[in-house]
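Can't paste images in this forum, so I'm doing it all in text. The chain is below; anyone willing to post the predicted structure tokens underneath?
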Amino acid sequence: MAKPDVEIGVFGGSGFYKLFDQFDEHVVETPYGAPSDRVAIGKMAGKTVAFMPRHGSSHQLPPHKINYRANVWAMKSLGVKRLISPCAAGSLQTHVKPGDFVICDQFVDRTSGRGDTFYDGPVTTHVSSADPYCPEMRELAIKAGKASGIETHEKGTVVVVQGPRFSSRAESIWFTSMGWEVINMTQYPEAHLAKEQELCVVNISLITDYDCGLTGNVEPVSHAEGVKVFNENNAKLLSLLQKLVESITSRTTKCDCASSLAGARI
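Text version of the structure:
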């Protein structure tokens, strides 16, 4: 089968394993090993889109075992320039409610031991993560969320924990006290790896629960409850994705994602 040429890629998170009813599947080999799954290529809003469930189609990969480098490299090799990265996430603040969407603008990395760069040498490369998400894609995602009637928070910081365990109450209270809005297990290193590949990346955090230390009297998060809420809100996510993909055009000068490597090498 001929290699497809796509410009838009979508990763699926917990509870989100299929995007199209009709699609072609492609096995992509990478220098970093096997990606999470085959890549499904289909049509959305009249455009060719690549989709991959980051945990695998049977959710066989816990967050700390995902081959993020292979996943991002696979998307890049197919021609993807715009990468949409929705994920299930918890809330760390009372004003961010289950069922809301957050278009994050920052992350805090609390993971360890993950392959988090494409540049292990011999050319030393330091790619900035000051602004990890594409401002243009974030603007389009915010508009798509509001047009879909979704309670959409225009910015937020996602703290990324290692997993597979959830936070202790003490950790959760700490994260809340820092003012961070969202907690998740997969946004790092995925977002930064996309930037290293000079992709425009946007995160859409679907809030499934309140984290355990938020108010001191909320029920501790459970994976089953989170997936239940995610499934209930999949229709909202698909509506947002449809409008977002429809609004994406060729890259403009509104962002500098395509030149992330400029000045990054010594």
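The chain has one domain: 8-259. The domain at 8-259 is CATH 3.40.50.1580 (Rossmann fold).
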